[in-house]
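Summary for the steering committee. The consortium agreed at its last meeting that each partner would contribute one worked example illustrating the joint modelling workflow. Our contribution is presented below. We chose a case with several input lines so that the handling of multiple components could be demonstrated. No manual editing was applied between input and output; the record is shown as generated.
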Amino acid sequence: MKHLQHFQQQLDDLKLQGQYRHFKSGVSSAPLIQFNGTTMLNLSSNDYLGLAADQALREEFFDLTPMHERQMSASSSRLLTGNFPAYERLEASMSQAFGRAVLLFNSGYHMNIGILPALVDSKTMIVADKLVHASIIDGIRLSTANYVRYRHNDLAHLQQLLTKYQADDKIERIMVVTESIFSMDGDETDLRALVALKQQFDKVLLYVDEAHAIGVRGQHGLGCAEQYQVLAEIDLLVGTFGKALASVGGYLVCDPVIREYLINHMRPLIFSTAQPPICMAWTDFIFQKMQSLQQERQQLASLALEAKQQIESLGYRCPSSSQIVPVIMGEAAQTVAAAEYMQQQGFYILPLRPPTVPQNTSRLRLCLNQHVTPTQLQQCLNVLREWSR
Ligand SMILES: *Cc1c(COP(=O)(O)O)cnc(C)c1O
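What follows is the complete predicted structure of the assembly.
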């Protein structure tokens, strides 16, 4: 029992620090979410295009998928007996859309903890944006490379670091790692400038995570890389199916040599049972649908712009240029109180506090999605205005 006391003590400390986490059971049917009988507008979902909530889509998919293709387990890794046709079909669809080789992973988390350790060695320097996702940090930690962080979105700082490491004979490769849209600030990397910078340094490989941009940006929803026409210049372009694409899994767009190398070296790919084939079939179905949702992408963008402008007019800092719209309040207790107030008024918005975000930048975070109407958004912003008086 003395061991349990040790863990209980740590949990009690977390509660005292206001950093205790627990599951809440909510029933979600977009754009609404229910907790303990209270129904709220869900402004904390990653279902940006509303596809996960779309029951008609699910019906269409099951109608199209005969029972013998509804396989619920791959029963082994793809390298053993788990390489069902559904994987190759999805990779072929994506390869065709992106114009390069594609490799699939069980989740975005597997992808980020697996690719970096497989590709880098002690002669590689990883240079990562200060605000990259926890899964990328874990991938860096699992790798044998040295690493440094550059100030968030500060390409001048990145350039200084690249100049230094390019000149260092002990370093053969530099892996620059960033996201296109960032999940805390909702801001984005200037991908064109980043690519132009990369092209000045022949040691650099560029790794960009489009978790919040796939489905949401670009003419065919292929992400910011498509939007800014730099698809071919990003050596390792990754993303997740778990957000706008209403499914589960991760993907990498890369040169066929890199794909082959990862199949031979990437541990989470080699040593984990592959996803159920039915998930692959569903992802392929959604991937096809998603490419033509240009109007939905535009509506989401204009909804987000409206939110940002009104939040700024209330005097808050809001660095967003995407569907993720923070209301940066600063102080943690005040932000928690604001979130509670918004929820009481029917808007499910969560507070983000340190250590998730830097000190004195506690914030509410609105994650907009395709099912939120301009009227609903306006009602929400009106409540925020009342709170801010
Ligand atoms: C959500 C997220 C991931 C993890 O993807 P999962 O498929 O949910 O495991 C990776 N990177 C970024 C930037 C994310 O936001």
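The mean pLDDT is 96. The longest strand covers residues 173-179.
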